[in-house]
Design a protein that fits this description.
Number of domains: 1
Radius of gyration: 21 Å
């Protein structure tokens, strides 16, 4: 039997490796994260600016169109993308770990491969996947938050100061050296996990339920438009339920920055202070731009993930068709 050329053998090995379920989900998750976050970067940054604005600050007491216009006037198109580079650097591994770990946990709870899970099992697997992803990528998330707000008009900055703001690596080093070493890079992680676990769990559970409902009888996959719809519904529902945790996460990530007007001692102290000073609506600051960006973000996230994953799984020479 003649031997295959070395290049062809290597190509077959690579195709087989990337088509394995865990690897395919990992790579597809990374692609999905980068695509979805870049599409909604301006709204993501506006949401953060609204979240971190405390009582008595009015720089971003604006509507969504006014806030976006203010960003454009003060910083141009770079303002829309401020922090997106570090966000993509964070979201690619975060999304990759999240999707691949969800598949890993799911396979261990399914009665048989492809049998599906009851909604509560999906909720549990999603929560575990969210916690896993946060633990791996949290320092990049806190740096993304710092980069998103450091050039905004919360403080008076000269033109020279704006041009010389530190980047991702400089911010990491500065926090490590001046704010307490490694713990500084994980500040706010408890509030993050408290919000991410139910959010990711609800997101995965809702997507699976809605996707199944939107799949025509006798078929295994809905159309791309139905997948987009399922992603938008799941993201909006999960985000609305868990949004106060996201506000707490942002506040704690910049709790040591000067000029912000607050220094919280604990999660409960933060909740009491926010509600007392800003009302219950303070726990929902920034939710409008967030909901406006969640629908296209999660829709493109799920569609990009499924399309990329199915393409990679289809590279397997022994299983060219993906169910």
């Amino acid at each position: 039997m003649p031997q295959l050329p070395e290049e062809l053998t290597r190509m077959i090995q690579i195709r087989y490796a990337v088509s394995q379920p865990f690897v395919a989900s990992f790579l597809a998750g990374g692609v999905a994260g980068a695509v979805s976050r870049t599409l909604v970067s301006p709204l993501e940054r506006l949401k953060i600016l609204l979240q971190v604005q405390s009582a008595g600050r009015t720089e971003y007491k604006l509507s969504v169109p006014q806030g976006l216009a203010k960003m454009w006037r003060e910083e141009g198109w770079r303002g829309f993308m401020r922090g997106n580079g570090s966000n993509c650097i964070r979201i690619v591994p975060y999304s990759a770990v999240q999707f691949s770990s969800y598949g890993f946990y799911r396979r261990h709870l399914e009665a048989s491969p492809g049998a599906g899970l009851p909604p509560l099992y999906g909720l549990f697997c999603g929560a575990c996947a969210g916690i896993t992803a946060v633990c791996f990528t949290y320092p990049l998330d806190i740096v993304r938050t710092r980069l998103s707000i450091q050039s905004a008009s919360f403080a008076t900055l000269t033109a020279t100061q704006r041009r010389n703001l530190p980047g991702m690596w400089g911010t990491l080093v500065y926090m490590y050296k001046t704010e307490g070493g490694p713990p500084a890079l994980y500040r706010g992680i408890l509030a993050t996990v408290a919000g991410v676990a139910p959010y990711v769990g609800l997101n995965f559970m809702t997507y699976e339920v809605v996707r199944k409902y939107l799949t025509p009888e006798g078929e295994e996959n809905p159309s791309p438009w139905r997948k987009l719809c399922a992603g938008a519904i799941s993201g909006g529902f999960a985000q609305t339920c868990t949004y106060p945790f996201d506000v707490l996460r942002r506040r704690f990530q910049i709790n040591t920055m000067s000029g912000m007007g607050y220094k919280y001692k604990s999660i409960w102290d933060a909740v009491r202070t926010i509600v007392r000073q800003e009302g219950v609506k303070g726990m929902y600051k920034g939710i409008l731009p967030n909901l406006l960006k969640v629908a296209p973000s999660m829709a493109s996230n799920w569609l990009s993930f499924e399309m990329t994953r199915d393409f990679l799984k289809g590279l397997d020479p022994d299983a060219p068709q993906v169910a």
